[in-house]
Write a structure and sequence with these properties.
Elements: H1 2-12, H2 14-32, H3 38-48, H4 54-78, H5 91-99, H6 103-136, H7 141-158, H8 163-178, E1 180-181, E2 188-189, H9 203-220, H10 239-244, H11 246-261, H12 266-281, H13 295-318, H14 324-335, H15 342-347, H16 349-372, H17 374-380, H18 385-404, H19 407-425, H20 431-453, H21 458-467, H22 469-484, H23 487-506
Antiparallel strand pairs: 1-2
């Protein structure tokens, strides 16, 4: 009964209900406007909700997350520009549909199937997280070290561009996260004699710079003109249409949840996986894929919203973010005094069910706002960058200053903004950088605690990795992820696939 009441708290509490509604509504338009990202929006919220109570802050963030992932589909369909990375696959068939005068039907179908995927994600989150959390209670310090390390490698291997670049950026993030006083000996570390660095870099300042200010710099350096499809047409899909694509939606939902639950994968990869699967499994699509197939909108849009629930699973059970957004949400949890991980289900089970209830409620609001706001979006999506970018700049500066009322934090925010900008310009993914900042202290703490537990005996320390079943599995996965990102492995895999195809062709 208590669990049910906690789950229903966001629906019964007017303040939380309002926060979820506002967050979902704002997230839809943040995700829809090219140049903005849900990660940046959540990062800005960290500073704005810094002094709030934990429940309204988390309810607002969950709403932004849900709305932002869905919102990217609108720009993808109308502008052929994904408003969010998770909407990349939606452009393949969404924009051709808009060009055929079916933009409204495409966006309506994307809305309904996104809600279906979101609800499947809620189901998996509610029923698998407690079991995974119980398993995680048996983890030793070395297992947390392997998990954190594996999370960084997964992000690096699945990020755009070079694997080596991504891993380099991740380790740079670890170094940034270790700046300050040592958490065991209280000795200054990497401070270079600067007193301001002894407290380390505030995670909100780092995130605001890397995702917020860097976005401003990047957009200022680019010149993008938008061609909007003005004809919307019918919006609400018929019940017959929804039922017709329900099997594909459920298939894509499972792909989305599984992909989202893998640390570092996220909605973008989930959408691409499900789109590829739809191309292979749908025998008679409404049109050829790439030319306006409804299935090409249903599959990625269902998967990327289902990935939200999946991404929250490793975050809440293991303290490992499922994607860049949950990496920022971990920062929000830490700021508000919570520690995501196995003990959270033991120490704060009510918080887990409030989060699950907020995610459920946000999908209801997503259906409402998603359907009624489609025509209004056509006007909002084309806000000039000359208005948009100064607003973002002011928000990032205010957010950085409000943390400690310190001009130093503004300077560091700007500095990290340039770091994020140059990373993007030179093809370095910024998601591993943020995860490195967050996971660096966990890696450091877990590794040293494991060494202390083995009394600094290197033999006993290494033996622990091959004597514990959990450690063996995690070590094998970590090594596989590490090897799979190398060029020899990719060449060997490509050669094996080629020979296999030739074998079946000859037969």
């Amino acid at each position: 009964m208590d669990l049910l009441l906690n789950f229903l708290t966001p629906l019964l509490n007017p303040q939380l209900l309002l926060m979820v509604a506002i967050g979902t509504f704002a997230g839809i338009y943040v995700g829809a406007i090219p140049g903005l990202s849900v990660t940046m929006a959540v990062a800005l919220l960290l500073s704005l909700t810094y002094s709030w109570d934990i429940l309204p802050a988390i309810a607002l963030i969950i709403g932004i997350y849900t709305g932002g992932v869905y919102g990217g589909s609108r720009a993808a369909i109308l502008l052929n520009i994904p408003g969010a990375p998770a909407a990349v696959a939606t452009t393949f068939d969404g924009y051709p549909l808009a060009q055929k005068g079916e933009a409204g039907k495409a966006m309506g179908l994307a809305t309904v199937t996104s809600v279906i995927g979101g609800m499947v994600g809620v189901f998996f989150l509610a029923f698998t997280t407690p079991a995974i959390s119980q398993l995680a209670l048996n983890f030793a310090h070395r297992d947390y070290f392997l998990l954190a390390f594996m999370g960084l490698l997964l992000v690096g291997s699945l990020s755009k561009g070079s694997f080596i670049k991504a891993v380099f950026v991740a380790f740079l993030g670890i170094i940034i996260g270790l700046v300050g006083l040592d958490n065991i000996t209280a000795t200054p570390r990497l401070t270079f004699g600067m007193l301001d660095l002894q407290r380390g870099f505030n995670i909100v300042v780092v995130i605001l710079g890397i995702f917020g200010f860097s976005e401003v710099l990047y957009q200022m350096s680019k010149s993008i003109s938008f061609t909007v499809v003005n004809k919307v047409g019918r919006i609400i899909p018929s019940l017959k249409t929804v039922i017709k694509y329900l099997p594909l939606s459920l298939q894509s939902s499972v792909i989305g949840v599984i992909s989202g639950a893998l640390p570092g994968v996220g909605g973008e990869i989930a959408a691409l996986f499900s789109y590829d699967r739809a191309k292979k499994s749908v025998k008679n699509p409404s049109r050829p894929f790439g030319e306006g197939a409804y299935e090409g909108v249903v599959a990625p849009e269902t998967a990327n919203n289902a990935a939200i629930g999946g991404a929250l699973i490793p975050m809440l059970t293991l303290g490992i973010p499922g994607d860049a957004v949950t990496a920022v949400i971990i920062g929000a949890f830490v700021i508000h005094g919570l520690n995501p991980g196995p003990l959270m289900m033991t120490d704060s089970p009510d918080m887990f069910w409030v989060i699950t209830g907020s995610l459920f409620l946000s999908n209801i609001f997503l259906l409402i706002f998603g359907i009624i706001g489609i025509k209004t979006f056509q006007k909002i999506v084309t806000i000039p960058k000359g208005i948009l970018l100064p607003v973002i700049t002011v928000l990032t500066i205010i957010g950085a200053y409000s943390i400690n009322n310190s001009m130093t934090d503004i300077y560091w925010m700007i500095a990290f903004g340039f770091v994020g900008y140059f990373c993007r310009v030179f093809g370095f993914s910024i998601a591993p950088l943020v995860l490195g900042v967050i996971l660096g202290p966990l890696i450091d703490k877990s590794l040293r605690a494991s060494l202390i537990a083995s009394q600094h005996n290197i033999g006993d320390f290494l033996l622990g990795f091959v004597t514990s079943p959990i450690s063996i599995v995690l070590l094998f996965i970590t090594l596989f992820v590490l090897v799979s990102g190398t060029s020899p492995y990719k060449k060997m895999k490509a050669l094996l696939v080629q020979k296999t195809r030739l074998l079946f062709k000859n037969e």
